[in-house]
Specification:
alpha/beta, TIM Barrel, Trefoil (Acidic Fibroblast Growth Factor, subunit A), eight-stranded parallel beta sheet, six-stranded mixed beta sheet, 18% helix, globular
Length: 544
């Protein structure tokens, strides 16, 4: 694209990217009957044991959850992943435990886990086969397709508290996935047992990906391909994914998170051999700030003291489990350095200063940028517990691949409003084309939905933000009729400031032109431009 004449984001002095107090909450709603009022915390067997999992290993992991202090730190769920079952159902079509790997049966295993003050999780798939079946030496066909009610009742009778439900196929449209995932959701709710429902619609990321809000279907949903213990994969959106890849997809979806509906960037790989201790700490801090489920995947029976200390960091866990349930936004992205901010229920803000680069860097922000106004603030280091004071400037020297993280208290939350912008003429909503999160993406109108690409936050300084760090922007500071309206990194310039007028028009501060649908279009995909304000319906918008 052409070179743009604008200041770099980190040079803007007047950027207000706050969201600590929101006068209109996002429209995403919890799946009916959701028991996951905070992000689930626990352990899953797959990363360490795969299809070799046995009853003895699960019992040992449950014991380790207690002896390591993880249970007391808030970890609850012990989840048995794929390959726990007999390869074939019984004559009545019922699931049953693998006779040699789980000889005591699943009810007895659940009882063992419950006796230790923990909760029992299990795995299934909505197709004929689970992910492992039909691959290598793992035969059988015991997926839940056609058996959803029967299987849900079995799970409830065994005392299951958590179901991981994994699509396991590259076929199937999104609508088919929604329908099939909903069948099991309703079957679980009908049992009367509060079973957390965790789905993975992203066995193949491109067909479904991050462009749909699954919060009306499940309690938590995978946002990406599988996360492995690598820092970054240069092939950005494909298997396998590293920590940085997953952050880039999940961070813009923060507005979809909340009590009963959580973005799930996959199980933790903290302590796995592919990450350094610094990278494990950063991974845990970012998942905590994004309000992600904290499901450990390392072998907790043999983990080091350093790894255990990361997983049991009470200050970060408290931020993750905060009852307000706001997903931390990436409020600033300067390339190699980023700033995350997560408002908390007591009016404080948890922040992360993230250095993605390969050398030590100073990462800076301000109280205003993370959502607080005022002149006196206290910083509590969420790693050490140490405190310091500031009049508003916040910075830290952060090692390569590191995250400095603080709880910022003092001042007052800055108020903003998050809502969709619905066009009067089209009854469609302002959207980012193809749900792109890239700077320079066009804006369009599209059928209104609840995904992040239609959630626009209006700030007191006139910015209208999406994804946390992108602003509604007049391309190349244009002031002529027909100037494209795009999203760009927020930088505080006039072409990113807008006034919502009493008559429903949205006026750009730079040239005084209005947000308009090109050629008065009303069809999905019609692009937004600037045009001389004329009071016509294609220039009028309501928050919804």
């Amino acid at each position: 694209m052409p070179v743009r004449s604008r200041k770099l984001p980190h040079l803007a002095a007047a950027v207000l990217v706050a969201f600590a107090t929101v006068t209109a909450q996002p429209v995403a709603q919890a799946a009916p009957g959701s028991p996951a009022v905070t992000p689930p915390m626990g352990w899953n067997s797959w990363n360490s044991f795969g299809c070799g999992i046995t009853e003895a290993q699960v019992r040992q992991a449950a014991d380790a959850m207690v002896s390591s202090g993880m249970r007391d730190a808030g970890y609850q769920y012990v989840v048995v992943d794929d390959c726990w079952f007999d390869p074939q159902r019984d004559s009545g079509g019922n699931l049953r435990a693998h006779p040699t790997k789980f000889p005591s049966g699943m009810k007895a295993l659940g009882d063992y886990i419950h006796a230790r003050g923990l909760k029992f999780g299990i795995y299934q798939a909505p197709n004929e086969k689970t992910c492992a079946q039909g691959v290598g030496t793992h035969p059988g066909s015991t997926g839940s397709k056609g058996h959803e009610v029967q299987d849900a009742r079995s799970f409830a009778s065994w005392g299951v508290d958590y179901l991981k439900y994994d699509w396991c196929s590259g076929s199937g449209t999104r609508d088919e996935q929604v329908a099939r995932f909903t069948i099991m959701r309703d079957a679980l709710r009908a049992t009367g047992r509060p079973i957390v429902y965790s789905i993975n619609p992203n066995s193949f990321h491109a067909p479904t990906g991050d462009k749909y809000n699954w919060g009306e279907v499940a309690d938590l949903w995978r946002t990406t391909e599988d996360l492995l213990d690598i820092w970054q994969n240069g092939n950005v959106n494909s298997y396998p994914m590293g920590v940085g890849n997953v952050v880039d997809i999940t961070a813009p979806l923060a507005v979809q998170a909340g009590p009963g509906h959580w973005n799930d960037p996959d199980m933790l790989v903290v302590g796995r051999p592919g990450l350094t201790l610094t990278e494990s700490r950063s991974h845990f801090a970012l998942w905590s700030l994004m309000a992600a489920p904290l499901m450990a995947g390392n072998d907790i029976r043999t983990m080091s003291g350093d790894v255990s200390a990361v997983l049991r960091n009470q200050r970060l866990i408290a931020a993750n489990q905060d009852r307000l349930g706001i997903g931390g936004r990436r409020v600033r992205d300067d390339g190699a350095t980023e700033v995350f901010a997560k408002p908390l229920s007591d009016g404080t803000v948890a922040i992360g200063l993230f250095n993605r680069g390969n050398g030590t860097a100073t990462v800076s922000t301000t109280a205003a940028q993370i959502g607080l106004s005022g002149t006196s603030f206290t910083l509590t280091d969420l790693w050490t517990g140490g405190t310091s004071t500031t009049s508003g400037a916040i910075s830290a020297s952060v090692p390569a691949h590191g995250v400095a993280t603080y709880r910022v208290s003092g001042g007052s939350p800055i108020t903003a409003t998050t809502a969709r912008l619905r066009g009067t003429a089209s009854n469609r909503c302002v959207d980012v084309e193809n749900a792109s999160t890239a700077a320079g993406a066009n804006t369009t109108i599209w059928d209104c939905h609840t995904a992040a690409s239609q959630q626009w936050t209006s700030w007191p300084n006139g910015e209208i933000r999406v994804y946390g760090d992108k602003c509604l922007d007049a391309y190349n500071q244009g002031t002529a009729n027909g100037t494209r309206v795009i999203v760009w990194q927020c930088n505080g310039q006039a072409n990113q400031r807008w006034t919502l007028q009493a008559d429903g028009t949205v006026r750009n501060a730079n040239g005084g032109l209005c947000l308009d649908v090109e050629r008065s279009g009303t069809a999905n995909g019609s692009r937004l431009v600037l045009w001389t304000c004329n009071g016509q319906a294609n220039q009028k918008w309501t928050r919804s």
